[in-house]
Amino acid sequence: MVFSVIHQYISKNNPFNIHLVLVDDYLEGRDKKDKSPYDYYVSDEFKKLYDSEHIKITLIKNKEHKYQGESREIG
């Protein structure tokens, strides 16, 4: 979804600005070996690649597991 939003924005030469707020919900017991394919989208590497004058990306990393509803509210 995140890449789709950015790609659509870029491909249309959009004159507007967008602000993506991405929340990484903490999962207890998960360590660096338990990577998800989606971890890339909430990484500093992803932010550096796409954060620009017209695309603002804010990453929020929960310190404890908040579940979907509360994570959306935080975002």
Characterise this structure:
The structure is a single chain. The protein is of the alpha+beta class. It has one domain. Helix content is 33%, strand content 19%. It contains 3 helices and 2 strands. It has helices at residues 2-11, 44-50, 67-74, and strands at 18-24, 55-61. The chain has a two-stranded parallel sheet with strand order 1-2. Helix 2 links the parallel strand 1 and strand 2 (55-61). It is elongated and about 40 Å long. It starts with a helix and ends with a helix. The relative contact order is 0.25. The model has no long low-confidence stretch (mean pLDDT 82).
Quick structural overview:
This protein is an alpha+beta fold and 75 residues long. It is 33% helix and 19% strand.
Features:
2 strands, about 80 residues, about 20% strand, about 35% helix, two-stranded parallel ribbon, alpha+beta, 3 helices
List the helices and strands and how they pair.
Layout: H1 2-11, E1 18-24, H2 44-50, E2 55-61, H3 67-74
Parallel strand pairs: 1-2
The helical percent reads: 25-40%
Largest sheet descriptor: 2 strands, parallel
Domain module count: 1
- Measure the end-to-end span: 16 Å
Number of helices: 3
Provide the β-strand percentage band.
15-25%
What structural class do you assign from the helix and strand content?
alpha+beta
Q: Over the alpha carbons, how many angstroms does the gyration radius reach?
A: 14 Å
Large-scale geometry: elongated
- In total, the number of strands is 2
* SSE succession: HEHEH
